[in-house]
Amino acid sequence: MTTEALAAPLPFGEISPLWRDEVQLQLRSQENVLASLEVDLDQQLRFVKGLVVVTNQRLLSRSGSQGVWQAWDLQPGQSLHHHDHAGVGHLDLLNPMGLLGTWRFTLGQNLQAIRLVDQFQAQLESTVSGRPLAQALTQVCPSCKAPLEPDQEECPVCTKVVHTPPSTWTLFRLWRFAKPYRGQLLLGFVLTLLGTAANLVPPYLTMPLMDNVLIPFQNGQTIDPMLVTMYMGGLLGSALAAWVLSWAKTYILALVSERIGADLRTTTYEHLLRLSLEYFGGKRTGDLMSRIGSESDRICVFLSLHLLDFATDVIMLTMTALILFSINPWLALVTLVPLPFIAWMIHFVRDRLRTGFEKIDRVWGEVTNVLADTIPGIRVVKAFAQERREANRFREANKHNLAVNDRINKIWSLFSPSVSFLTELGLLVVWAFGIWQVSKGQITVGVLTAFIAYISRFYGRLDSMSRIVSVTQKSASAAKRIFDILDHVSSVPEPVNPVPMGKVQGSIEVRDVGFRYGNREVNRGISLKIAPGEMIGLVGHSGSGKSTLVNLICRFYDVSEGAILVDGVDIRSFAISDYRQNIGLVLQEPFLFFGTIADNIAYGKPDATRAQIIAAARAAHAHEFILRLPQGYDSMVGERGQGLSGGERQRISIARALLIDPRILILDEATSSVDSETEKEIQKALENLVQGRTTIAIAHRLSTLHRADRLVVLDRGRVVEEGTHDALMAAEGAYFNLYQAQARNMDMDMDDVK
């Protein structure tokens, strides 16, 4: 390819007609467009259209919210940074002075953003260095600079999951959960301070007890009972005070930590429920359960026990050091000799434990994932006699977990005894230096005895503090995994100022809709209008985009291009919960929760009366078989509907949809997994369900769409045909071929039966 070809201006056909004329007006003489990006979010992540354009001279930008164009000439020192986080793309223009401009967009525009950055960097290098543009436009990843093939859309390096090591500073983010309990925390801190002071009284009383009572007695003097009683009373009083204060602060801080843990679990779970289906598509159930369960428990234990111990250790060390220096500064300095070595070891070990504990968490997630897969799917495991295989999977995951723990334990087993050895060595040095000072008459035996008592506590707390390194890193790893969930922004955001729903009529307009999974285009250019009360049948080969279109209408995902309107309003303008309350969904594989039949029918309307539940079940042709169950509507349903047939589960699912009385109904292969007799029962229930509702039905068996007012045929993500059954058959197009192929398959099945 020639330099001229690479530098050729971008055809205006690649820019949306909405922007084409405006861009043309902004261009200077001899200025050509090289790349463009349509951004669709503002800085508050609201849906606002905008445009970023790179030319051979400048970077141009217009935001729909501002309505004015901005421009920056290409100059040395500029850079265009591109990254994405939590489903939102970020583009930042910087120079040595700081940030010039910033843009946000959904990841449907991510490929265009990468191309825009490539063109910007290439044109900037060409402008500054004078190198040929062909050389500058060599395909590289904008993030890691790894070389890309000419038609490669994704970087093989960047698309892999990157696990950043947890930081101890992550634990400070827990303050948002601790803030409501700051009064109790302050009280706990004061009690800790007082309790530590009470624990430091006994060694201080040993000095006069030794010098004024015991040593004089050895020299022939009599013991003063009042003096001994006073000292012993002081020791008893300090012990009782330390016990009461320790109990009070432990109880208060334990209560607080449990509430922080409960708030953390609740907040994480609520945030998880608000995330889009796209997030769950890339996560394992066992891993998410582990994060919300065991990880939050680990943090709770850290807050209630280890953090309290750490605070006590710090206070004890500080107060002990002050007392030691007040008694004898030189002896106190000798006491601190092991500290630099212990601090270096803590730093050395912490860096190695930091990544190790997060790896342990991830490996433990593998173990729980095996359990989460096999226990709900135990019927399939047994049906295919794969018990040995699943046991081997669990054994391998457990072996991996054991190997990772062994590596961590190898480091920790060396660290802990080393700290103990250094503290014992320090104590020996203090004994030697103290005996030397006693022999010189610089200190008394009582002072040395008190000093040894304080040093024993000092080194004991120092050893305890060193051991908390392991616990802290485990808790930091747990906090990071939880905040990974909390930091994730849903790719289906709530509008800032939602439009009230009002009474829904049920008209739907799909306007030039496109959708991508990552960089893979699934639907493109779909336009469709559905009148209130009309029934539409979606047909097409597997993978043609039928279910994806339904997911977009339900707003499980957001469109990458175009818009979907209900009653003339973009569905992204409605509050998600308000919008979905007007949609009834009947899936191919109905999901029932563990509970009673009545609870499952009333899932979408928990306050429904028993009469309303029964009426919905009658309309769904489920009332008769429910009455045959041992406890009728109060019969318990096993997990995922165990104990009921597929047709029974489907009719309960239809009753559940009927009860909320939706204006829009989605039927996704509702009868594809049942026999002919059951299908007839379900069809009767569906006839009651669709009356007066706007209905979109996907059906594997084309014969089940005989009641549809119109059929829409999709192929490779596009609408290729639209019309009634008779009209489409007469046209002998895509629908005709589908129908004929299905008829031939049915004939072959009948021949096999004969």
Automatic annotation (TrEMBL):
Keywords assigned: ATP-binding, Cell membrane, Membrane, Nucleotide-binding, Transmembrane, Transmembrane helix
SUPFAM superfamilies membership: ABC transporter transmembrane region, P-loop containing nucleoside triphosphate hydrolases
Localization, UniProt: Cell membrane
Highest taxon of the lineage: Bacteria
PROSITE patterns reported in the protein's UniProt record: ABC_TM1F, ABC_TRANSPORTER_1, ABC_TRANSPORTER_2
Membrane-protein topology: Multi-pass membrane protein
Cross-referenced Gene3D superfamilies: ABC transporter type 1, transmembrane domain (1.20.1560.10), P-loop containing nucleotide triphosphate hydrolases (3.40.50.300)
Domain ABC transporter: 508-741
One GO molecular-function entry: ATP binding
Transmembrane segments: 185-205, 225-245, 299-324, 330-349, 414-436, 442-460
Every ABC transmembrane type-1 domain range: 186-474
Broad class of the protein's primary localization: membrane
Record protein name field: ATP-binding cassette subfamily B protein
